[in-house]
From TrEMBL:
Pfam families according to UniProt: GH16_XgeA
Superkingdom, natural source: Eukaryota
Name under which the protein is recorded: GH16 domain-containing protein
InterPro entries on file: ConA-like_dom_sf, Glycosyl_Hydrlase_16
Gene3D superfamilies (UniProt xref): 2.60.120.200
Species the sequence originates in: Ephemerocybe angulata
Signal peptide: none
GO biological process per UniProt: glucan catabolic process
Amino acid sequence: MRFFTGDDPTDGLVHYVTRERAFSQNYTYFEDDGTVIMESDMKTKLNPGEKRERYTFFSSVRIETMKEYNGGLFILDLKRAPWGCAVWPAYWTTSRFDWPYVGRPSYLLDPELSFDDQNGEIDILEGTHDNEHNQITWHTCNDDKKIGRYGCSAMEWSQASYGLHLNLKAEGHSFRAAIPEDVTAGEPRPSTWGPPSAVLSNTRCNITQYFKKHVVVFDITFCGNYAGNNYNASQCPGTCAERLADPANLIVRAPRSVPSLSGLG
């Protein structure tokens, strides 16, 4: 995995740290069974209205696969996921140019990049604050079908898809006893799993054109363009900035705990 370092491209109040700092500060570590843990700094105090300097950000972690994918089957084994007021965690895919932040790619700063140089985004597991439902979203650029930068979303009906109930339901996205035998046997057959939570049809969207060369991403951020703008719609007190002012009042309900991610593609 590659550690993305630097300020959050989505304007979250975090600074993504290097691999060395992540492990030395225990933001990332391995449990005895090989499970990967991702956490954020919960000690730094951010005063509302304070000039935003790098040292006033929360330290956090964003990791990405080295390999790029043009498609495939990805099976995530997830024990716990972060949630809580001001928190914005995500499991998603995007190109290494970090759509849609033109001129602010992950690994190559090139202000001449256009939207046509970037290859969309797929949000697989994402939510904010006290949400109880996962939101799956596809984002594209310059699509004549007008999916557009704001994306085409599907909300999962199950309360076990995000937040409290996701973590309570057998420590994962599905009851562990209900994991299909073909998955545990290492021979997955998706056609036998029943209807999916969301589908993007290729009848009106050229999927191979708009979604390609993706890396898989895990990150944890706070406030930012999404969680900062929809804070008033939550049941959380005060403002997002006020919630961050004192870490004692900021409750991140759980770290991200990932036993495994299998990619066939």
